[in-house]
């Protein structure tokens, strides 16, 4: 779907695995299914999520808001490339 | 010599929430699946969208799991004694009328221990914002019954089920005279953000109830599963009814949850009422409440200078 010159946004998901308590909110409520719980453990013994489909992220930042541990944030891929 | 930054240190620094949170205190003490973090996120999001001066925002909370919010947020914050968040907030507002005072506390703290303060702040229409995180139990002390625990729900003080009638908080706030009343669940993070934005702009007593899961005590004792099950229940059984009659929004055990903005009306706030009343009774001699001494002196000086200039 195209709307003139508007481009689809893509986000980069940053996850801090150390603070995660494996509640799974981000995985279940990501509208495009970017995340999945990993099989690994973190040092607390929980399964933190990992980015499975990085190209699917549309920068809605819902995982950032729903995460009760403040352990996910999303940045705009374009801005990131500009500043780098 | 500087040691290289670890991943955790970098995350603390680069996280956009570092503007609002005392990152050195993270990770926090809340249980996995708890909804308080979502409420804090939404609150921070609402502050980000607002054009408030962050130095003029104060967060006050009482005791309990939600009482920790004041300690974690990077504002002028007060962690008060049990139930006394609203009196302290009232004092703060009266001493500093241009400050934005936000109370974030739990249901037991605000309406159980501090119920009297809650109804009187609502009655006076104090210009403060109250965010009540309602998890139907006293989480930190071991799952006792609160005034909002639904009938039949199990709690550690009612192991055979609760036989009391619970408060419906929007009805209580509305009946006491609150001028902004809303309810959401912790799943509806965007709606909480919008609601808090509205409440911050609103003049008068604004009350937002957020239903959150307590996985460790309430959900475990009642065999309701984990945080995800609670959010699924909010997803399936919640219904947005803006402007609903607050008499009909009570929550029974695992019943339908009606949510939305129930009350939004204008009424003079406490300080406005003080000023209009005394201006009527005393007349011109009355000095308007809410100006600090340096402000008054500066005004006097400016007036004197203007007088000298005209001479």
Number of domains of chain B: 2
Q: How far do the termini of chain B sit from each other?
A: 66 Å
CATH class of chain A: Alpha Beta
Strand content of chain B: 5-15%
- Unreliable stretches of chain A (pLDDT < 50, length at least 5) are none
Helix percentage of chain B: 25-40%
Assembly of the depicted chains: heterodimer
**Strand neighbour order, sheet with most strands of chain B:** 2-1-3-4-6-5-8-7
Q: Return the CATH architecture of chain A.
A: 2-Layer Sandwich
Give the fraction of residues assigned to helices of chain A.
10-25%
Rg over CA atoms of chain A: 14 Å
Q: Can you give the mean pLDDT of chain A?
A: 88
Number of helices of chain B: 12
Q: In percent, how much strand structure appears in the residues of chain A?
A: 15-25%
Just name the CATH architecture of the largest domain in chain B.
Answer: 3-Layer(aba) Sandwich
Instruction: Specify which chain pair forms the largest interface.
Output: A-B, 22 and 32 residues
Shape of chain B: globular
Strand-pairing-aware structural class of chain A: alpha+beta
How are the strands ordered across the major sheet of chain A?
Answer: 1-4
The CATH superfamily of the largest domain in chain B bears the name Thiamin diphosphate (ThDP)-binding fold, Pyr/PP domains
Question: Would you mind describing this structure in some detail?
Answer:
The complex is a heterodimer of chains A (84) and B (311). Chain A contains three helices and four strands; from the N terminus they run βαββαβα. Chain A is α+β, with helices and mostly antiparallel strands and 84 residues long. Chain A has a single domain (11-83), classed as 2-Layer Sandwich (Alpha-Beta Plaits). In chain A, the strands form two sheets. In chain A, strands 1-4 form a two-stranded antiparallel sheet. In chain A, strands 2-3 form a two-stranded antiparallel ribbon. The longest helix of chain A is centred in the C-terminal third of the chain and has 7 residues, at 77-83. The model of chain A has no long low-confidence stretch (mean pLDDT 88). Chain B is an alpha/beta fold. Chain B folds into two domains: 7-267, Rossmann fold; 272-310, no CATH class. In chain B, 40% of the residues lie in helices and 14% in strands. An eight-stranded mixed sheet of chain B has the order 2-1-3-4-6-5-8-7, with helices on both faces. In chain B, helix 2 (36-49) crosses helix 8 (189-201) and helix 6 crosses helix 7 (169-176). The longest helix of chain B is centred in the C-terminal third of the chain and has 18 residues, at 293-310. At the A-B interface, helix 1 and helix 2 of A face helix 1, helix 2, helix 8 and helix 10 of B.
């Amino acid at each position: 779907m195209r709307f003139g010159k508007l481009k689809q946004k893509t986000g980069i998901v940053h996850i801090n695995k150390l603070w995660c308590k494996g509640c799974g909110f981000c995985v279940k409520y990501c509208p495009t299914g970017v995340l999945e719980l990993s099989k690994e453990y973190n040092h607390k013994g929980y399964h933190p999520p990992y980015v499975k489909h990085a190209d699917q992220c549309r920068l809605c930042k819902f995982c950032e808001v729903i995460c009760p541990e403040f352990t996910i944030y999303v940045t705009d891929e374009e801005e990131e490339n500009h500043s780098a | 010599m500087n040691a290289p930054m670890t991943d955790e240190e970098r995350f603390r620094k680069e996280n956009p929430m570092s503007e609002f949170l005392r990152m050195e205190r993270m990770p926090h003490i809340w249980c996995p699946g708890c909804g308080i973090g979502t409420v804090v996120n939404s609150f921070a999001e609402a502050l980000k969208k607002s054009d408030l001066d962050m130095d003029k925002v104060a967060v006050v909370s009482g005791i309990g799991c939600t009482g920790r919010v004041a300690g974690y947020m990077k504002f002028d914050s007060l962690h008060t004694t049990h139930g006394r968040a609203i009196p302290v907030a009232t004092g703060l507002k009266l001493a500093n009328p241009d400050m934005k005072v936000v109370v974030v506390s739990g249901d037991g703290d605000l309406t159980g221990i501090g119920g009297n303060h809650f109804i009187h702040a609502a009655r006076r229409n104090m210009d403060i914002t109250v965010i009540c995180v309602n998890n139907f139990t006293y989480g930190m002390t071991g799952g006792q019954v609160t005034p909002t625990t639904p009938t039949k729900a199990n709690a550690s003080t009612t192991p055979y089920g609760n036989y009391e009638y619970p408060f419906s908080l929007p009805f209580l706030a509305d009946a006491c005279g609150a001028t902004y009343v809303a309810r959401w669940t912790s799943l509806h993070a965007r709606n909480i953000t919008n609601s808090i934005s509205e409440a911050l702009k609103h003049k008068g007593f604004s009350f937002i109830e957020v239903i959150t899961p307590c996985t460790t005590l309430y959900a475990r004792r009642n065999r309701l599963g984990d945080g995800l099950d609670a959010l699924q229940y909010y997803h399936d059984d919640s219904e947005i009814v803006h402007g609903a009659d607050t008499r009909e929004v009570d929550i029974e055990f695992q019943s339908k949850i009606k949510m939305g903005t129930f009350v939004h009306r204008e009424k003079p706030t406490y300080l406005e009422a003080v000023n209009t009343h005394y201006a009527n009774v005393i007349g011109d001699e009355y000095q308007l409440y809410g100006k600090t001494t340096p402000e008054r002196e500066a005004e006097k000086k400016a007036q004197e200078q203007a007088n000298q200039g005209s001479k």
